[in-house]
Amino acid sequence: MSIAVSTKGVTNFNEVLTRVKAAGLMKKKPSFYMIRLAVISVLASGLWTASAFIGQAFNENPVWIIAGFGIAGLLGVLSAQYGFIAHEAAHRQVFRGNKANDALGLVLANLFAGLSYGFWMKKHNQHHKTPNQINADPDIAIRILSFTPESRNEKKGIERWLSERQGYLFPFLLFLTGFDLLLDSFAGLVRKEKPLKTRLLEFGLMTVRQAAPYVAMGFMFGWLWAIALWLFQMMIFGFFMGAAFAPNHKGMPLVPKDSKLDFFSRQVLTSRNIRGSWLKDNLMGGLNYQVEHHLFPSMARPNLRKAHAIVGEYCRQNDIPLIEMNLIASYVVIIKYLSKVGLSNNVDPFVCPMVATLRPRS
User: Fold this and answer.
1) How does DSSP classify residue 246?
2) Is 360 inside any structural domain?
3) Does any domain span residue 350?
4) pLDDT, tens digit, 9 for 90 and up, residues 244-268
5) Residue 253 — φ and ψ, nearest 5°?
6) What is the tally of structural domains in the chain?
7) Domain that holds residue 323
8) What is the CA radius of gyration of the chain?
């Protein structure tokens, strides 16, 4: 089904953008990010210091084992926080200049989160251009998940088996997100889209990030325990990354590959907001304001909450569906949707955003 471009949609965006600019919400806030990075780095340094003390006393006592895994898990959470700020640097949210944002993003993504900044930028920019569009959005072209029956039917072997059970397995599959991103990151560095010098720099930083914690844990806890702790850290890192990004679009209307949508409709109708709180805003990297992030991708995180009030009011005034729900409810929607795609041969995967399911505000 082809959907015509809406002139009103263009007007909608211009009107909202005017209101947002008038409120001063497009201004950068580098101090927010510098303070946040300082806090995260102090916490990470404290955890590594604590792990050194635990490593000296480590004798495979259950108490020390639990403490070791606890620290590894917290380091995984902090790695995800570095990843969120790298994501924001890629969107030019931190500084005015592109070079400063790219330098920060490259260091944070490759050296602190362990993922390729170049790979992430290419993949994520394409997602923003075509969110939830079939055969265009890389975020719905995932190896072990299927978002349409056609995608499920194309898979074979273990990928097909997982897709058919993806609804039940989804919470557990989130723990594999970090490994999937890591494999894609290294694979992306092989492609010759970036200069060799840049790819070698990214490879070097990623290698240091992935090897250094393992070596450090090896000396502190022994090499077998180091492998277990590294794997656990990667699982927690991946879970937090996947759990923060999944509620934003999964289970929302899909756009047929040949459809044309105006920018405002494309971003609002395919995105889902999560009701915010101080804790969610921090743990999810501001991604709980997904509609506003997609409408204004270069907007600094602290301004998203204020922009949400403006966008929400405009959508209510103009009877435009804006989906917002609590975090648990969003996961329920995702799991039900993935189960339908995985198990049913007659599922309508919300292919038309104008028809969709556009579920009422909850």
Assistant:
1) G
2) no
3) yes
4) 999 999 999 999 888 888 899 899 9
5) -55, 140
6) 1
7) 1-355
8) 21
